[in-house]
Design a protein that fits this description.
It is a single chain. The protein is mostly helical. About 75% of the residues lie in helices and about 0% in strands. The protein is elongated and about 55 Å long.
Length: about 230
């Protein structure tokens, strides 16, 4: 499925207008999460690129690019071995970059539990730059939507869902989706409303928040927001 955020939202809204509420989340929930993860991954990628760009080391850099090529070719075990070596022997930014990439390779392998554990470990490591720690926490939080509880998602990322944090929009969306998945419609409504109330929220994120609020209202499981 090729994702076009606006057309995807229109399709879901057509489902809502047709009153075919049963199964809407079952049909679209995974895609909503995937679309949002693509944005999170892009933001995290920008953070990691900036970190890499400030800490270039040509020899280790070639090794890192070679490990990434292995991962892109789905040679996951070989990629993990190369990244593990970089984590232990690399210079500059590369040990941290190797840890982040290795966690992503674990996702590719289907070992989501190992990936979550790895991202959580990076997120708690005070030796890692704050921006990279936040990126790791966000990756863990999004993986936990499908593979954990609302409480686990909250523990991972709620601290970032505050004004001024660069990841606040993604954190609020993840928390809203986790609350919705858990059946806590009132909490979900609060998180999605906080996205809409933030004038700096990206348009696509705000559009998805509106869509989710429509879904919650149509479900009849949460009171409408008071204006």
């Amino acid at each position: 499925m090729a994702f076009n955020d606006d057309s995807f939202i229109r399709e879901v809204n057509e489902e809502l207008r047709s009153d075919q509420m049963k199964g809407v989340w079952r049909r679209f929930g995974r895609y909503i999460i995937v679309v949002a993860i693509l944005i999170v991954a892009g933001t995290a990628g920008k953070v990691l690129y900036d970190y890499w760009d400030d800490n270039r080391s040509s020899g280790t850099g070639d090794q890192f690019l070679a490990a990434m090529k292995l991962a892109d070719e789905n040679k996951n075990d070989e990629a993990l071995a190369a990244l593990d070596k970089l984590e232990k022997e690399g210079h500059g930014a590369y040990p941290v970059l190797a840890r982040m990439r290795a966690a992503t390779v674990q996702v590719q392998k289907g070992d989501t539990a190992a990936a979550i554990a790895a991202f959580n470990e990076i997120g708690k490591d005070n030796a890692v730059p704050a921006a990279v720690r936040d990126a790791a926490k966000m990756r863990a939080g999004w993986l936990l939507i499908e593979n954990g509880s609302y409480e686990q998602v909250s523990a991972a990322i709620e601290e970032m869902a505050v004004p001024g944090n660069a990841f606040r929009h993604s954190a609020r969306e993840a928390l809203g989706l986790a609350a919705y998945k858990a059946g806590n419609m009132a909490q979900a409504r609060q998180w999605f409303q906080s996205i809409i109330d933030d004038t700096d929220s990206p348009r696509n994120v705000a559009n998805r928040a509106h869509m989710m609020l429509d879904l919650i209202t149509a479900s009849g499981k949460a009171p409408a927001a008071q204006g």
